[in-house]
Amino acid sequence: MPPSPRPLGVAPAPASYSLNLFPRRRCLPARHAVSMAASHAHDAHFLRRAADVADRSAGLASPHPNFGCVIARPQLETDDVEAWVVGEGYLYSQGTPCAELLAAEEAGEHARGATAYLNLEPDDCYGNSTAVSSLVQAGVTRVVVGLRHPLKHLRGKAIQLLRHQGIQVDVVGEDLQSKLFKEALGSCLIVNAPLLYRAAFHVPFSVLKYAMTADGKIAASTGHASWVSGKASRGRVFELRGRSDAIIVGGNTVRLDTFTCVVDPRLTARHVKGGHVPVRIVMSQSFNLPEEANLWNVHDAYTIVATQRGARRDLQKKLAMKGVEVVEFEMLNPRDVMSYCYDRGYLSVLWECGGTLAASAISARVIHKVYAFFAPKIIGGVNAPTPVGELGMKQMTQAIDLIDVSYEQVDRDMLMSGFLQPIPDLSPVIPSVDEIPSVDPEVSPYETNIISFYKTWDTFGAFANFSPHPISLPDENGDCFTWPTVEHYYQAHKFVSVDNPQARDIVQEIKQARSPEEAARIGRTRQRELPELIGSPRKLM
Ligand SMILES: Nc1c(N[C@@H]2O[C@H](COP(=O)(O)O)[C@@H](O)[C@H]2O)[nH]c(=O)[nH]c1=O
């Protein structure tokens, strides 16, 4: 609870201010009308604080975003800007009062003439006790917004409503352009990275977490893994789980830990009593799972087993009797499971799986961030498992570079975290249709019917060659063949029109490639090595 501010004894300040950025050291008498320019430095400071406040709802508010609201007004009696905060709040669960209402209630009369800082444009606009009505009734005269709402049907609505109520609304990157906002904007993006990724890619924000010894192993060759990382690191893992809607492990993790009686995983966020308990998802194509396991105790947490259609129906029934939900997929793969999680409203998923499944998820481009705990120990073991299995990369130059990498020591361990794909910054975004004429009458709202699909994770990424979905087409003999991806089909058809056994072998090799990346690598390499086998383009269909 911020210290209650001393009344300034002033009438609500006008909507715009002019602040003496270098106030004289002596305290001005409080009766002086407070005037302050919207100082970018102060705005950035409070916006960053709003993002930090919003982060308190991580894992609790899903599928709602993490909203934070800080209401502040200058107090000339003190240089301590923290004392300028008169109220703050965050959405602490679904169906609870919005952050703006909580902040306004805390600020009371001190909200009049103050500025409200929001990490994200509110979503609930219409009706009482909503973000907009709370700010209007509180009497704030200015609102600073970090990010417009990323969901198109909500984008720009609250901003427009607040402006219609005569409140000055400054959006970072639009009305507020200054490098001073770089860090605060970064905080606004990160605190809602799950929502931004979900809105952009239509899959939950996925984090791959593993603990690895200094010699690159996640367990001994026997599978024994208790523990690689220390207690403090495992505490951080509990926090990560507490922010996630679901945790994913492979069947091997359950089998291994249970059969070797090593650590029968529970995958619960045991750091706080009564904290958020994520769903546990086991991906197992064969359904070759133990009848008894901690994970089947649904009193700890809800458990889902994702499997291939028809796998071990007898065991499915037994687990279903224990309250485990079994979901069957035509072809069990990370992207389909993530689409399923998207449909269930999950924002954030934590993958705590073995290397095979981790590689498959990375290849399917559903992993967005990595948390790697490095432990200062050596275990050795030629067959000891490693964090990521086969990605089809044969040259180090193909390695995926992490971006926005952070390093942190956690007791004796080192935590490295980084993004595999940049946070999709949906701002500056196209303002909602009815705002466009006021923004730029020349721009038709339908200008944006051009689509791009450079990457499989673009909105229309399904049109990209690498998009992980099969296509069935007649081959040169007229027989229907199902290609794993368009890339497989494209690379193979460089060689089909040459009647040569080597060319036919290459086509077979590409057909068997386990990923579009591998198909591309084979096609390009063979094309470079044997240009004479490249056929003249002919009707491919
Ligand atoms: N051994 C190991 C990890 N192993 C992961 O944690 C799971 C067991 O966690 P729990 O079910 O909470 O006991 C296990 O299934 C595997 O996914 N994680 C780590 O952070 N550090 C470690 O040293």
TrEMBL record:
<comment type="similarity">
    <text>In the C-terminal section; belongs to the YbiA family.</text>
</comment>
<dbReference type="GO" id="GO:0008703">
    <property type="term" value="F:5-amino-6-(5-phosphoribosylamino)uracil reductase activity"/>
</dbReference>
<dbReference type="Pfam" id="PF08719">
    <property type="entry name" value="NADAR"/>
</dbReference>
<dbReference type="InterPro" id="IPR012816">
    <property type="entry name" value="NADAR"/>
</dbReference>
<dbReference type="GO" id="GO:0050661">
    <property type="term" value="F:NADP binding"/>
</dbReference>
<keyword id="KW-0934">Plastid</keyword>
<dbReference type="GO" id="GO:0009231">
    <property type="term" value="P:riboflavin biosynthetic process"/>
</dbReference>
<dbReference type="InterPro" id="IPR004794">
    <property type="entry name" value="Eubact_RibD"/>
</dbReference>
<dbReference type="InterPro" id="IPR037238">
    <property type="entry name" value="YbiA-like_sf"/>
</dbReference>
<feature type="domain" description="CMP/dCMP-type deaminase">
    <location>
        <begin position="41"/>
        <end position="170"/>
    </location>
</feature>
<keyword id="KW-0378">Hydrolase</keyword>
<keyword id="KW-0560">Oxidoreductase</keyword>
<dbReference type="InterPro" id="IPR024072">
    <property type="entry name" value="DHFR-like_dom_sf"/>
</dbReference>
<dbReference type="GO" id="GO:0008835">
    <property type="term" value="F:diaminohydroxyphosphoribosylaminopyrimidine deaminase activity"/>
</dbReference>
<dbReference type="InterPro" id="IPR050765">
    <property type="entry name" value="Riboflavin_Biosynth_HTPR"/>
</dbReference>
<comment type="pathway">
    <text>Cofactor biosynthesis; riboflavin biosynthesis; 5-amino-6-(D-ribitylamino)uracil from GTP: step 3/4.</text>
</comment>
<dbReference type="InterPro" id="IPR002734">
    <property type="entry name" value="RibDG_C"/>
</dbReference>
<dbReference type="InterPro" id="IPR002125">
    <property type="entry name" value="CMP_dCMP_dom"/>
</dbReference>
<dbReference type="Pfam" id="PF01872">
    <property type="entry name" value="RibD_C"/>
</dbReference>
<dbReference type="GO" id="GO:0009507">
    <property type="term" value="C:chloroplast"/>
</dbReference>
<keyword id="KW-0326">Glycosidase</keyword>
<dbReference type="InterPro" id="IPR016193">
    <property type="entry name" value="Cytidine_deaminase-like"/>
</dbReference>
<keyword id="KW-0809">Transit peptide</keyword>
<dbReference type="InterPro" id="IPR011549">
    <property type="entry name" value="RibD_C"/>
</dbReference>
<dbReference type="GO" id="GO:0016799">
    <property type="term" value="F:hydrolase activity, hydrolyzing N-glycosyl compounds"/>
</dbReference>
<keyword id="KW-0521">NADP</keyword>
<dbReference type="GO" id="GO:1901135">
    <property type="term" value="P:carbohydrate derivative metabolic process"/>
</dbReference>
<protein>
    <recommendedName>
        <fullName>Riboflavin biosynthesis protein PYRR, chloroplastic</fullName>
        <ecNumber>1.1.1.193</ecNumber>
    </recommendedName>
</protein>
<keyword id="KW-0511">Multifunctional enzyme</keyword>
<keyword id="KW-0150">Chloroplast</keyword>
